[in-house]
Write a structure and sequence with these properties.
Elements lengths: L1 H27 L7 E7 L5 H11 L2 E7 L2 H10 L6 E2 L3 H9 L33 E13 L24 E4 L2 H11 L9 H14 L3 E5 L3 H6 L5 E5 H10 L4 E3 L5 E9 L7 H12 L1 H11 L14 H4 L8 H4 L2 E2 L6 H18 L1
Helix pairs in contact: 5-6, 5-13, 6-13
Length: 357
């Protein structure tokens, strides 16, 4: 019995020593306790060099996790298994997270670089006075197409996609709001339409697009269009920019009927453990040079006015991604549809996908 007790005591002492060593190592690297920050973001949506730079400047270790949809992100934050300190949802989900009391107010006195953000992207309907969110990137939903593969054909309208000559030529991003929205726009309805008859009409019109749809996919749509597996893709503007960078034959257009103007903003979830570190991270990302570096890496449009002087003219002068006021006036921001209408969008989109099979 005494031997057993001595063994247990030795094991306990060894464990304590190991824990102390780990703590000291982490402390020496600035990784202990409050010096850890957990960031939850979309995949490939930040220049990793900026994370390294932030860690070196602040001594805060960043734990970086990714999600592939707003809904998946919100579900994980609701469950509370991981205490995320910063997350980057889209505008309609920010509105919903506010309703569910999942966000902490942001202390603007700790965000000195907020002055760098263009006033046009502040105080929007989904978050008046930016009480809970700070702009990160913005963009549009549109069409990338390869004129070379289409015999020189130009695309300017959503309705062009229904051309019978485009059989098996279109890739669609796997998103209910985006694809139902595309069909609603083609019928000159709002992206936020809740009218059951209009939604059913939009879904039935999507069914007639089926012969032209080669696949409905996720992030791989970028590579497929880039490699000319299909002539056309319906996707987000930042993805389009990346495709165009790799394949100079590809064009991007925001259709003349209008489309979605989306915003992704940085928020602090209510379960955050390092609130001070979260403010430091947000402020760091709003630094003009950091924002410019991130913009060149990610490819989406920056709301950071101060960053513009650090970006090449080929980026900020491209009217396909930095739109004029006339085109912006035709765009709509996604609204929080409410649980019932959002479920209807998702159900109808699923019906469309099943119809293809």
């Amino acid at each position: 019995m005494k031997g057993l007790i001595r063994g247990l005591a030795a094991a306990f002492i060894l464990s304590a020593v190991l824990m102390l060593v780990v703590h000291q190592v982490n402390s020496s690297r600035g990784y202990a306790g409050g010096n850890t920050l957990t960031v939850y973001n979309w995949g490939d949506y930040i220049d990793a060099d900026l994370i390294d730079k932030f860690e070196k400047e602040t001594g805060i270790k960043v734990i970086y996790e990714t999600f592939d949809s707003n809904e998946a992100m919100m579900t994980k934050i609701e469950q509370g298994g991981t205490n995320y300190d910063v997350a980057i949802p889209s505008e309609y989900m920010i509105d919903k997270m506010k309703e569910e009391n999942l966000l902490l107010p942001i202390d603007h006195s700790k965000i000195s670089n907020l002055k760098n953000i263009d006033d046009r992207y502040l105080n929007l309907s989904f978050d008046p006075d930016n009480k809970y969110s700070i702009p990160y990137f913005w963009g549009t939903v549109g069409i990338v197409y390869n004129p070379k593969m289409l015999g020189g054909k130009k695309i300017t309208s959503w309705n062009d996609l229904w051309d019978s000559d485009l059989k098996n030529q279109i890739m669609l991003i796997d998103g209910a709001r985006e694809i139902m929205g595309m069909s609603l726009n083609s019928l000159h309805y709002s992206l936020n339409d809740k009218d059951h008859d209009h939604l059913r009409e939009a879904k039935e019109k999507l069914d007639t697009l089926t012969p032209n749809v080669k696949a409905i996919v996720g992030d791989e749509i970028r590579m497929l269009v880039e490699n000319e597996e299909a002539a056309i893709g319906v996707l987000w503007s930042g993805m389009a920019a990346e495709v165009m960078w790799e394949n100079e034959d590809v064009e991007y257009v925001v259709p003349e009927e209008g489309s979605n103007l989306w915003f992704d903003n940085m928020v602090i979830p209510k379960t955050a453990k390092n609130i001070d570190g979260a403010h430091k991270f947000i402020n760091f990302m709003l630094d003009a040079k950091n924002a410019a570096q991130n913009t060149e890496y990610v490819g989406y449009s920056t709301p950071n006015k101060a960053a513009m002087k650090y970006l090449p003219e080929e980026i900020i002068g491209d009217k396909r991604f930095y739109l004029d006021e006339e085109m912006i006036s035709k765009l709509e921001v996604y609204e929080n549809l409410g649980q019932r209408s959002l479920a209807e969008y998702n159900d109808l989109f699923l019906e469309f996908k099943m119809h293809r099979k």
